[in-house]
């Protein structure tokens, strides 16, 4: 098992490009090169499942801060109190609040969602820290891979089909 080998073999990820590795390939590489607990954590992150790992407390807290900021923006738009939709979190991140507010300036929901994922990307960068040779770098990579995989998988035609299915009103006479 070699963390350094894994880190050096992962292709670079760019927010606006198709990833050079699939989630399945990433998970398999993690299983080969990491311990079982770290590999399971990376797999859960890439698939968007909740994770309980000591080194990810910061990630979980930042995600809660982000979701709370989104809830506040949506409540403000609806003229309601956001208290019932927010969750307990430690600290605050003014930059996060500002970036979420900027994302909500977008009228197009797709552009807004993209802006929110860019905030998640920055949170992953922050999670990674300054030491490039720790397992936390793999976890940050898993978060970023999940983001770019999601965007690479979006298809306008399929989205329109799903929208039509969801908004189709059955006519009964």
Task: Please tally the β strands and state the result.
Answer: 0
Detail the poorly predicted runs.
none
Radius of gyration: 18 Å
Q: How many domains?
A: 1
Shape descriptor reads globular
Average pLDDT for all residues: 90
Keywords:
8 helices; 173 residues; mainly alpha
Summed up:
The protein has 173 residues and is mostly helical.
Task: Outline the structure in words.
The protein is mainly alpha-helical and 173 residues long. The protein has one domain (3-154). The protein is 64% helix and 0% strand. It has 8 helices and no strands. It has helices at residues 3-9, 23-33, 36-46, 57-78, 94-103, 109-128, 135-152, 156-167. Helix 2 (23-33) runs antiparallel to helix 3, helix 4 runs antiparallel to helix 6 (109-128) and helix 5 (94-103) packs antiparallel against helix 6 (109-128). The longest helix has 22 residues, at 57-78. It is globular. It starts with a helix and ends in a 6-residue tail after the last helix. The mean pLDDT is 90.
Set down the secondary structure blueprint.
Blueprint: H1 3-9, H2 23-33, H3 36-46, H4 57-78, H5 94-103, H6 109-128, H7 135-152, H8 156-167
Helix pairs in contact: 2-3, 3-7, 4-5, 4-6, 5-6, 6-7
């Amino acid at each position: 098992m070699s963390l350094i080998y894994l880190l050096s073999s992962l292709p670079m990820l760019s927010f606006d490009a198709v990833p050079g590795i699939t989630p399945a390939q990433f998970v398999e590489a993690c299983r080969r090169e990491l311990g079982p607990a770290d590999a399971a954590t990376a797999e859960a992150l890439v698939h968007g499942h909740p994770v309980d790992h000591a080194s990810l407390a910061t990630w979980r807290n930042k995600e809660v801060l982000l979701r709370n900021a989104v809830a506040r923006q949506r409540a403000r738009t609806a003229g309601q109190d956001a208290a019932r939709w927010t969750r307990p979190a430690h600290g605050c991140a003014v930059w996060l609040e500002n970036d979420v507010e900027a994302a909500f300036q977008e009228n197009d929901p797709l552009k807004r969602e993209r802006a929110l994922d860019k905030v998640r990307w920055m949170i992953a960068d922050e999670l990674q820290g300054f030491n490039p040779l720790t397992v936390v770098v793999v976890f940050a990579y898993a978060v970023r891979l999940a983001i770019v995989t999601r965007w690479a998988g979006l298809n306008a035609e399929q989205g329109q089909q799903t929208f039509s299915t969801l908004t189709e009103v059955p006519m009964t006479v």
